[in-house]
């Protein structure tokens, strides 16, 4: 019925529309740009828990508790001002940011940005080496 309606509006025969094959447009032969880090899939906390469960032969619930416990310990220690170093992986530490003068982008007026403390991460040598080895060349 839809084909007949379309055929009458556009002066095509319904049999031509119903029996036609759809042909995909030809793909461009232009070279595609190399993949960048922003186009790669990201792993969320749930994915991390699934991988930990598989690698450590744990149930999903046990892996969930282990990952959450690890993250809680890291966050608690860094919040207390301590550095958490995991050999080969990296270190987490609080980093002080000095007070500075900023600008309101709409008005251009100067404003004072207060000093703050933010969490920081530095990758360890083994982590850096593994990422470097896996990078596209």
TrEMBL record:
One of its GO terms (cellular component) is cytosol. InterPro entries: Hist_DNA-bd, Histone-like_DNA-bd_CS, IHF-like_DNA-bd_dom_sf. SMART domains: BHL (SM00411). It comes from the Eukaryota. Keywords: DNA-binding. Gene3D superfamilies: IHF-like DNA-binding proteins (4.10.520.10). The lineage of its organism: Eukaryota, Viridiplantae, Chlorophyta, core chlorophytes, Trebouxiophyceae. This is Uncharacterized protein. One of its GO terms (molecular function) is DNA binding.
């Amino acid at each position: 019925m839809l084909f007949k309606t379309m055929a009458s509006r556009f002066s095509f025969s319904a049999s031509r529309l119903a029996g036609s094959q759809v042909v995909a447009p030809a793909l461009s032969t232009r070279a595609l740009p190399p993949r960048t880090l922003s186009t790669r899939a990201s792993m969320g906390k749930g994915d991390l828990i699934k991988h930990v469960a598989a690698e450590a032969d744990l149930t999903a619930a046990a892996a969930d508790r282990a990952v959450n416990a690890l993250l809680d310990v890291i966050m608690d220690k860094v919040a207390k001002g301590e550095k958490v170093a995991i050999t080969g992986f990296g270190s987490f530490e609080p980093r002080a940011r000095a007070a500075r003068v900023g600008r309101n982008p709409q008005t251009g007026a100067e404003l004072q940005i207060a000093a703050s403390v933010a969490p920081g991460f530095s990758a360890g040598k083994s982590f850096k080496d593994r990422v470097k080895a896996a990078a596209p060349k």
